[in-house]
Specification:
With 217 residues, this protein is α+β, with helices and mostly antiparallel strands. It has two domains: 7-126, Archaeosine Trna-guanine Transglycosylase, Chain: A, domain 4 (Roll); 137-216. It is 33% helix and 27% strand. It has a five-stranded mixed barrel. Strands 4-5 form a two-stranded antiparallel ribbon. The longest helix is centred in the last third of the chain and has 16 residues, at 192-207. The protein is globular and about 50 Å long.
């Protein structure tokens, strides 16, 4: 598989997978279950390319229209895990490569969407693992414990406690059940400390009763 170390290694056009609520971040892993015919075609085409990239992006509702537009920023993942079920579906793993900005959608004969993208704003995504000097791990985990208890969620606390800063913050950003716009805010955070601050704000807002009735059911 191509090892992409600089922006020049990234393709100009990539397949786009609009999936509400699914967040992928650089160097993080996202498991996906692929079964729709158009996305099976997307997967097969991506596997034929050197980069094996799929662009994860949040769709946006357009008031008064059935059309779903795309947010301007997504994150591309390399296909790093792949298995086929007996009935022809696929379980895959994407490893976050870099965020991107959509320049324009590309028309063509594929059943899935594609976009011309610009990687230039996100050069740090291809760099080393980020750290967060301001992270107060004990305080974050205490807050998380209250949030998980309130939402009746469970996790492997020993793994969280031992995780590096980036893995901890990005894993929580991906796993916590925030709405799509909140996930987008976490994706667009320019640095790991900013993402941590956004994450804490979202958790605190949720604990103050900021969740919708639909979510609480």
């Amino acid at each position: 598989m191509t090892d992409m170390k600089k922006l020049a290694d990234l393709p100009e056009v990539i397949p786009i997978f609009p999936l509400p609520g699914a967040l992928l971040l650089p160097r993080a892993r996202l498991p996906l279950h692929i079964f729709e015919p158009r996305y099976l075609a997307m997967l097969e085409d991506a596997m034929k390319t050197p980069a094996r990239l799929i662009g994860m992006i949040q769709p946006r509702e357009v008031p008064g229209s059935a059309e779903k537009r795309l947010h301007s920023i997504g994150c591309a993942g390399r296909l790093t895990g792949f298995s086929e079920t007996e009935d022809g579906r696929y379980m895959i793993t994407l490893t976050g490569a870099s965020r991107f900005r959509v320049v324009e959608e590309v028309s063509g004969f594929t059943p899935y969407r594609r976009a011309r993208v610009d990687w230039s704003d996100f050069g740090r995504d291809l760099g080393p693992v980020e750290t967060d000097p301001g992270l107060q791990r004990t305080g974050l985990l205490d807050l998380l414990g209250r949030y998980f208890a309130a939402r009746k969620l469970s996790t492997d606390w020993s793994s969280l406690n031992d995780a590096e800063d980036e893995l901890l913050i990005n894993a929580l950003s991906m796993l916590c059940p925030f709405d799509a716009e909140d996930k987008q805010a976490l994706l667009e955070a320019p640095s790991l400390p900013t993402r941590r601050e956004t994450l804490i704000t979202l958790i605190e807002f949720s604990l103050r009763g900021g969740l919708s009735e639909d979510f609480l059911q």
